[in-house]
Design a protein that fits this description.
The structure is a homotetramer.
Chain A (H helix, E strand, L loop, with lengths): L7 H4 L4 H21 L6 H8 L7 H11 L2 H13 L12 H37 L4 E6 L2 E7 H26 L1 E2 L13 H11 L2 E2 L10 H27 L7 E2 L19 H14 L2 H6 L10 H29 L2 E2 L1 H8 L8 H10 L4 H17 L4 H6 L2 H6 L2 H7 L9 H9 L1
Parallel strand pairs in A: 3-4
Antiparallel strand pairs in A: 1-2, 5-6
C-alpha cells in the first residue's frame, strides 16, 4: 500500500484506527447480545458506549502485542487498561478469529462498495464516449493489422459492456464476502450461543456464515480476489488500447497532457501515455494477489494462521490499488483527446484493401469458387499494399474480376456506409 | 491432457472429431439462417444434412492447414473437397472467430455441465458422511494443535457448504460462458445480418454476445477459469484434511486400500494417502491456468491471436483434470474409512486441557480478572501437558481455582456434551 | 503437450518407451554396482543385457499398474514377466523414487541440451541480423512514442545479449538438475550402499545428490522451471517487438508470408504476424509452470507424492513448448523481412522533433537555464507536431533560440550521424 | 511493505531519503566524469560536494512532481532550488532511466547483501542443529506415514544443503543485478560519452550494462525475483516441517514459547507454531512477485514505463519480507526445542513394521520371489498395525518366513543400527 497509488477514502478503511473501531463495534454488539441472553451484566454496554470515541493508541497496543504475541489479546488488554475490570465481560466465549474475520469481511465489503462506485463512474464516462463517437469512423485492427472499418464508439461500447460485467461480478463477490462469524473455538459455539452471532451479524449488515471452523472459509476471499484480478485485466485491456492508439504513427487518441507536464527529462518533445502504462503495471500488481488468495484456501484442519500475513498485505493492497486504478482510468477516459481526422486518415492508409471481404463475397456470389475468388482478391490486395496504388483501380483493370462485376457493383462494394448499418442494433442491445 | 488424469466422457468434448462436428453444426445453422434471409440458396442445407455424419479426417485437414496456415480455412477446404462447389455458400460473411469462439463456448459450457454433475455427486457423498458422522466426536485442531472437540460430521458439513458455494459459482461461470457470436470481421456485421447470429445462438442454446470485436471478450473466460481454480483449491483443502487425518500418529481416517494395492516398492507395510496427495498436485495444475487466462484478456485492438495457443492447452487441461479430480475425490469420500475409536483416543490425548476455555470463562464469571484467570489456566494446562497428568486433577489441587469453584462446578466444566449442543443448529442451517 | 506445438526430437525424450528405457538403464547400472559389491549374482547383468532391446509394452504395464496402483512396481513386474525369476535381484534396496527422480533428472537434462542448441541457433540468427543491420537507421521509441534514432541492428544486438544471458542461465539450471540419487527409503541407504549411487550416477553422467530424503529436493526443479519462464518472457519481448513493427502504420518488418498462406478467412488482404502472436501465447503457457514448480518444493517430511502429477504435466509441457517456441522464433528471425525504407520514412515522421534533446542541451550550454531551455524546446516541438511543420524551421524563426544559436550550430544539432557514433563501442562490448 | 514484517536495516535501503542520496551520488559521479571530459565545468563538483549532506525534502519534491508529473525532473528542480543556476550542468545528456535503473540496481544489490548475510546466519544455525542431532533417531515419513528411521540431524542437514544452494543462487542473482547504465535516450549515447557510464559504474561498484535501450533489460530483475521465490519456498518447506513435527500427536519439536506469550485468546492451553505458520504465509507473499516480474520483461520497443509501478511495490516488498522471514526462521531454528524422547517413542509406534523392507530383502535373498516375499511381508505388517501387535512376533509365528529365516537372522533384521551406518558418509559430503 503505497501513497503514490492510494486514495485516502480507501486507505481509511484499512487504517489501524478504523480496524480497532470495527473490532470495538463487534465486541460491543456481542456484549449486547450476551447481556440480552443474561450471560453478562447489561451495565457493560453503557461502559462501552461511554468510551465509544476512544482513540486507539496503536503504539501502546503494539507494545502489549510484543509481549503477548497476539493482536486481539493486546487489543483487549488495552481496553481493560481504559475501562478497567469490567473488560472481563468482553469477548466472552469468543475467539480472536470471530473478531478478525468479521472485521475483514466488513473491510472488504466496504472496499467493494467504493469499487462499485468507481466502476459506475467509469461506466458513465465510457457511455459518454460511446454515445459521442457512435459514428466516429476508424479502422478496426486484428493482429495489429488493418482489417475493416468500425467506430470509436463501438470500442467504447465494448469496454462499457465488459466493465458492466465486471460490475455484476463485483456485486456477486461482495455479497459472497458479506458474512460474519461469532462461533468460538473451532466454530463449535461451546461457550457462546449462535444467537449472539445472529445478532451481531444483523447489526453489522452481514449474513451469518453457515458453518465456520473458527474461521470464515477462504474460498469466499479467493473468489473475491479473483474478481478483482479480472477487473484489473479489463483495465489493462483498455489501457493497452489507449497506448496503441496514442502511438506516434497512429495518433488517434491522446491522454490529456496538462500544463507544465513534462514527458521526458531529456526529450522535451515527448507526450507519453504514462497513465495508461501505469495502469498496465497496476493491473499486474492487483493480479498477483490471486495465487496467494487461492493458496490461502488450503488451511489445515479447523484453521491455521498462514493466511493472516497474506491478507494483511493483499487485503489493503489489492483494493487500494484497484480503487486508484479505476479512478485514474475514469479520469483518463473523461479527459481523453480524440482525433477523428487522424482516424479517417488511417482508415484509407491501405489504399482501400480493407474492402477486400466485400469483393471476395461478391465474386463467390457471382459463381466463382471460394478458392478462386480468394486468390484473385488476395493478389490484387497485396499488390495495392506493396505498390501503394488504389485497390479499386487494380480491380477495375483485373479481367477475372471485371468478367463478373460491373463498375457500378464495384462502387457499391467500396461504399463504406455498409460497415455501420448495424451499429444501431448493437447500441440497442447495450444501452437499450 | 494426459490419459492418466482423464475421463473419456470429458476428453470426448475436446476431441478433434467433436470440435469439427460443432463447427459443422455452427456453419449449418448459419447457412439455414442465411438461406432464410435469401442470401444463399436453400439447397445447401440439404447438402449439408446429407453429409452430417461425415468423418472428419483430421490428417487431411492438418495437411491443408500446413499450406494455408489457417485452421478454419483448412476445414472449409476439406468440406469443399467433399460436398463440392456448393461449399462456397458456407461461411459467407463470417470470420473464423465466429466459428472458433462459438465452438469454444459450447465446449466450455458442456464441460461445465459435466463438472456440475461431478460436484453434485461429491455433495451427495459429503452429505452422507456428514449425516452419518453428525455426532462422531473428534478433536478440533487449530494450528495443528488440539483445540476443542468437534465432530467428524461437522468437518464434512463444512466441506459440503464450501463445495455447495463452488457449485453456485460454477453455475454462474457457466452462464457467463454460454454465449456465441457470429459478427464477422472486427464484429461489424458488415457482410452478415445480426439475425444470423441470433438464429444460430438460439439453435445452439447460447445467448448472443452483445458486442463482439470479432472475438468474444476474454474476461468471460478468465472468470470461468478463475472459478475452476477456486474449486481446485477447495479440493486441495479437503485432500489435505484427509492426508492429515491419515497420518500414522493420528489415523482417524484412511483412504480405501484395495486388494493387491502396493503402497511402496520398498516398504510393504505402507498404506499411503496417495489419492489425496495426487489431488493436491492436480489442484496446482488446475490453478496454474488462472494467470494465463487473465493475461488473455488483454488482447490488442479488436483482437489478436495470442490467446489461441493458451486456450488450446488450458481449455481441455483445466476441465479434464478438474473432472478427474472431482471424480477421484468423490470416490475417495465414498469409500473413506473412518476410525471413530481413534478419534476418541486422540480426543483425550492431552489430559483434558481441551476444556481450558471453559475453566477460563468460569473463573472470569466468578469475578477473577481475565488476565489473572488466563494465567491460572495456562499454568495448569501447560503443566498437564508437560508432566502428562490430568488437567482436572491439577485444578482440584489449585488453590486459586478452588477458592472460587466447587468440585461439582468443575465436573460440569469437564462435561464434553456442551461442545455438541449446537450441532443441530448448524445442521439445520445447512441441510434445512 | 499438444502436437501442434511440439517437435519430435523433444517429445521423444518424454515418450513412455524412452522413460522405460531410462528406468531399465538405471536398474541395470544399479545391478552392476550391486553385483560388483557381491550383493547380487553377476549373471543378472547378462540377462539384462540380453533383453536390453526390449519393447516396453505400455498397455501391459498400465494393466499391472491398475492393480498395484504403483508405476515402478508395475514396471518391475513387467520385467519379471519377461526375464523370469532373476528379476528379484533388480531394484534391491532401492525405492521407486531412486528410479523416478533420477530418470526425471535425465529427461530434464537432455531437454536442456536441446534447448541450449535452440538458443545457440537463435543467437546465430540474431547476430546475423545485428551485423547486417548495424547501421540500418530507425526511430527508437519510448512509451510507443518517437524518441531518438537508433538502428535496427541495435535492437537485434539487445535481443542477442538478453538471449545470451538466458543461455548462461539455462546452463546453470541444467547443471543444477544434473543429479541422481539412489538412496533408498527416506534416503537412509539402509539397504543399499552409497557406492551404488556413485556408480550409477557416474555411468549416467550425473552428479550425486548430496542428501536426498528418498527424493531429490524440488528447489532444483523450481530453479529450472523459473529459468524456462525467464526465457519464455524474453521470447515474448522479442515477439511483441516484431508485432509492433509489423503494424500497418509502422510496417518496418514483416514475418515471412509463404506462398499459399491465408491471413484471414474473410479478408484476403491480411498479412498477420501470427507467429509472433503465437509466441506471445506460448510464453504464457511456459510461464504458468513456475508457480506449481515453486509449490512443489514444499513436500511433507521426507517426501510426499503431490509433486508427481504436476511434473508429469509441466515436465514435458514446459520443455516441449519452449523448444517449439525457440525453434519458431529462430525461423521467424531467419526469414524476417526488414523494410529499411519504411524505417527511414518513420524516422522523419515527426518533422525533426526527435532532435529536441540536442537543442535542449545546446541551449543550456549556451547559458540558458535548464528550466527555460526546456520550455523553449517543448513549445516549438509540440507546435511542430501539432501543425505538421518543420521543427528546425520553427527554431530558425524563434528569437530566444536564435539569440544564442547560429544557423550553422543548428545544422550541427540536426545532423543525424551523432546518434550512431557509439554503435561501434556497443558492438565491441557484445561481439568483441 | 508493512512494519510488522520489516527490519529497519532493510527498509532503510528503500527509504525516500536513501533513494535520493543514491540519485545524488549517481548524478555527482556523472558530473565528475563529464567534467573530466571537459563537457561541463569542474566547479560543479565542489558545489555538489558542499551540499552532499542535503536533507531531501520529500514533501517539496512531491509537490514539484505533481506539476511536472515526472519524478526525476522534480528531483532535479529541487536540486536547482538549492544549488541554484549551476544545476543546469547536472544530468546533461542523461535520461531519467539512467538514474532510476542504476539506483534500483544498487538497492537490489544492497538488499541481496543483507539477504546473503541472513542466509549465512540461517546456515550456521542449521549446521549447529545438524551436528548436535546427527544421531538423534527419529522416524522418517513418506506421505505422512511412517517409513524407516532417519535422524533429526539429517533433516537439518538436508535443509542446510538446500539453503546452501539458495545462497549460491542468490549470489548469482545478485551479480546479475549488479549493473548500471548511463546511456541516454533510447540508449544511444547521443549526448553522453560511454566513458561517463564506465566511470560512474566503476565508482559505484557496478558492471556496465552492455547494451541498454534507455532501460536495463528486465530479464535480470525477473531472474532476481525468481530466485527470491525459490528461497521463499524453501523457507516454507522447513516451516511446514516444523509445523508437522509440533503437531499435538507428534510433538517432536516445538517453537520457543516465550514468557507471557499467549497462544489463543480463548484457549489458554495452546502453544501454536505461529512463527512457522507465519513463514508459510510470508512465503506466498514473496512468491507472488515472480509473475509480475516476468511480465515486466515484455516492455515495448526501447522501453515503456509499465514496470515502474510494479517495481515500486515488489522491489521493497519482496526483499523486506524475505529478510524478515529469513531472520525469523533463523531465530526459530536457533531456539527450537527438540524432544528426542518423543522421537524415540514415535519411532516404535507401529510395532516394528518400519523394518519391513529388511524382511522383504532378506526373503528375496533367500530365494523367494519378489512378488511372494512382498505378499508375506505386507500381510504380517498390516496385521501388526491393525491388531497392534509386534511385527517381529508375527513373523516368528509365520511359517513361510521361518522356513527360510532363523530367529537370529530376524534379530539382525530388526537391529536399528543399520539405518545409521551411512550417516557419516552423508555428513562428509555436506560438511566435509
Amino acid at each position: 500500500m503505497i501513497d503514490r497509488y492510494s486514495r485516502k477514502v480507501m486507505t481509511d478503511i484499512w487504517s489501524d484506527q478504523k480496524k480497532y473501531e470495527i473490532w470495538y463495534e463487534i465486541e460491543r454488539y456481542a456484549c449486547e447480545a450476551q447481556a440480552n441472553l443474561g450471560v453478562i451484566p447489561k451495565e457493560i454496554i453503557d461502559t462501552l458506549d461511554q468510551n465509544k470515541n476512544i482513540i486507539f493508541d496503536a503504539k501502546r497496543i503494539n507494545e502489549i502485542e510484543k509481549e503477548t504475541k497476539h493482536d486481539v489479546i493486546a487489543f483487549l488488554t488495552f481496553i481493560s487498561e481504559i475501562i478497567g475490570d469490567d473488560a472481563r465481560f468482553i469477548h466472552q466465549g469468543m475467539t480472536s478469529s470471530d473478531v478478525l474475520d468479521t472485521c475483514f469481511s466488513i473491510q472488504l465489503f466496504r472496499s467493494s462498495e467504493l469499487l462499485i462506485e468507481d466502476l459506475k463512474t467509469l461506466l458513465k464516462n465510457l457511455k459518454n464516449l460511446a454515445l459521442k463517437h457512435k459514428f466516429t469512423k476508424c479502422i478496426g485492427r486484428s493482429h495489429g493489422i488493418h482489417a475493416e472499418p468500425t467506430t470509436f464508439g463501438l470500442k467504447m461500447a465494448q469496454a462499457y459492456t465488459e466493465m458492466n460485467r465486471n460490475l455484476e461480478r463485483l456485486k456477486t463477490a461482495s455479497e459472497e464476502i458479506r458474512v460474519g462469524a461469532i462461533s468460538g473455538a473451532v466454530g463449535n459455539y461451546s461457550s457462546i450461543d449462535p444467537k449472539v452471532e445472529e445478532y451481531v451479524c444483523k447489526k453489522l449488515g452481514l449474513k451469518v456464515e453457515e458453518i465456520s471452523t473458527q474461521i470464515i472459509p477462504r474460498d469466499r476471499h479467493a473468489a473475491f480476489f479473483s474478481t478483482l484480478s479480472v477487473i484489473a485485466s479489463s483495465i489493462e485491456r483498455l489501457a493497452v488500447e489507449i497506448r496503441h492508439l496514442q502511438r506516434t504513427e497512429i495518433m488517434e487518441v491522446s491522454e490529456f497532457f496538462s500544463k507544465g507536464q513534462k514527458g521526458s527529462s531529456a526529450m522535451p518533445h515527448k507526450k507519453n501515455p504514462i497513465h495508461s502504462e501505469n495502469l498496465t503495471g497496476l493491473s499486474r500488481l492487483i493480479r498477483m494477489s490471486v495465487i496467494p488468495a487461492l493458496e490461502n484456501i488450503v488451511l489445515w484442519h479447523e484453521r491455521d494462521i498462514s493466511h493472516s500475513s497474506v491478507e494483511r498485505v493483499i487485503g489493503p493492497d489489492a483494493t487500494v490499488i484497484l480503487d486508484f486504478a479505476l479512478t485514474r482510468l475514469s479520469l483518463l477516459m473523461e479527459n481523453l483527446i480524440v482525433y477523428p481526422e487522424n482516424m479517417k486518415k488511417n482508415l484509407y492508409k491501405l489504399n482501400g484493401v480493407i474492402f477486400s471481404q466485400n469483393v471476395l463475397l461478391k465474386l463467390t456470389q457471382k459463381g466463382i469458387s471460394r478458392e478462386e475468388s480468394y486468390k484473385i482478391v488476395q493478389k490484387n490486395a497485396l499488390q495495392a499494399i506493396d505498390d501503394d496504388v488504389s485497390f479499386k483501380d487494380l480491380l477495375l483493370n483485373d479481367k477475372e474480376t471485371m468478367n463478373v462485376l460491373s463498375p457500378k457493383e464495384l462502387d457499391q462494394i467500396f461504399d463504406i456506409s455498409r460497415y455501420f448499418k448495424h451499429v444501431d442494433t448493437i447500441y440497442k442491445r447495450i444501452f437499450g
